Amino acid sequence: GFLDHVAVGNEEWNPWEEEEKSELVASQQRFEANLKMIKNAQSHLGQTSLRVQIWGKAAIGLYLWQHIFGEHLQPADVTAQWREGSQKAGKTYFSFITGPSVVPGYFSVEAENVVLVLNGREKAKIAYATQWLHYAQTLIQTHKIRHVAVVLLGNEQCSNEWIQPYLKRHGGFVNLLFVTYDYALVNEEDIFQWPLGVATYRNFPLVEPSWSMLHDPRSYLCNFLGTVYKNSSRETLMEILKQDGLDKLCWIAAREQWQPQETNESFKNYQDALLQSDLTLCPVGINTECYRIYEACSYGSLPVIEDVMTPGDCGNSSMYHSAPLQLLKTMGAPFIFIKNWKELPAVLEKEKKMSLQEKIQRRKKLIEWYGNFKAWMRQKFINTLENSFLPSDKG
């Protein structure tokens, strides 16, 4: 099975089971077809007929450029006022600019097609994002640019109504929207789900898998370093770990208040925990999808995900019944999904019995999947832009 669905001790009849199985098989077939598409696309690098400038005005832009596109930025200094990079991909020449000096009206617009990377997480960020949209709108009206796509770090409760009037379908000018989380309006036509990725705002690095990362025994069965919110499932997780001394087998460091900025020491501890644990526990926070999932994949530590929909406007049950994490599931993520942390002791029991060889195979599979996932997202992004921005031949 390409998807290790572990639902230990959950013997209840599941009316979705057959449908889920067929959906998973279909997902795997789509995934394999998409990998073929990537390979074909890479072998047909022809003339560039599209120029796209990406304006990275949210940290998620660094995940797009450095992790998904696999490109560098000059200068390498993360505190630089202006950073840029470029890449030719498919029929498109991409340039990327980011940094505090990228300000509306104070830099040269070098392409007719623009991708705006924006943060729409809360009110102050939305106000800033709106200024950028108004700037882009002015450029469209004065015929300086022709097409605009937006990559949006969405709100964790998926309340992204503010962006809708800017979309073409609602009389606006934005052709395409790539948005994080299981936003209910994702339709695979002009609104697409985008991965949250790693916390680039904390300078989480692009990790190159090493021989030792894949082959060395790891000291801990699992890890959880994070905030334990009052009355959340994270409290339940802590109680379960304390029972039977499971917390002694795992690297656990809980705090009561979220800290936006890591110290060098806490960040190094976190990376060490990922590298030294076979499993990374991913309890629901404000949203089920969290940076931790992608960061664990980077280090070959298998995410154990609490597969529960978070409150708010996320999830499109009319289109998919398998939200949350629809994007990752559709791409066949080989994670362990559990509905309740009471299932964790059985998962850890199974873990204790696994041989190092089995764990090595699992790590290889996880890291290979994550590499393929990023390659697929890149190709989908490029294809979507080309299909939308290039004139069609259907004259």
Put the structure in a nutshell:
With 395 residues, the chain is an alpha/beta fold. The protein has helices spanning 17-43, 60-68, 123-141, 211-215, 233-242, 264-276, 291-298, 326-330, 344-353, 356-389, and strands spanning 50-56, 83-89, 92-98, 113-119, 147-153, 174-180, 191-194, 220-227, 250-255, 277-282, 302-306, 336-338. GO terms for molecular function: ribitol beta-1,4-xylosyltransferase activity.
Q: Would you write up a description of this structure?
A:
- This protein has 395 residues and is α/β, with parallel strands linked by helices.
- The chain has two domains: 50-180, P-loop containing nucleotide triphosphate hydrolases (Rossmann fold, 3-Layer(aba) Sandwich); 204-371, Rossmann fold (3-Layer(aba) Sandwich).
- 35% of the residues lie in helices and 19% in strands.
- The protein has ten helices and twelve strands.
- The protein has helices at residues 17-43, 60-68, 123-141, 211-215, 233-242, 264-276, 291-298, 326-330, 344-353, 356-389; strands spanning 50-56, 83-89, 92-98, 113-119, 147-153, 174-180, 191-194, 220-227, 250-255, 277-282, 302-306, 336-338.
- The strands form two sheets. It has a seven-stranded mixed beta sheet, sandwiched between helices.
- Strand 10, helix 7 and strand 11 form a beta-alpha-beta unit.
- Helix 1 packs across helix 10.
- It is globular.
- Residues 201-390 form the RXYLT1 C-terminal domain.
Topology:
Elements: H1 17-43, E1 50-56, H2 60-68, E2 83-89, E3 92-98, E4 113-119, H3 123-141, E5 147-153, E6 174-180, E7 191-194, H4 211-215, E8 220-227, H5 233-242, E9 250-255, H6 264-276, E10 277-282, H7 291-298, E11 302-306, H8 326-330, E12 336-338, H9 344-353, H10 356-389
Parallel strand pairs: 1-3, 1-4, 4-5, 5-6, 6-7, 8-9, 8-10, 10-11, 11-12
Antiparallel strand pairs: 2-3
Helix pairs in contact: 1-10
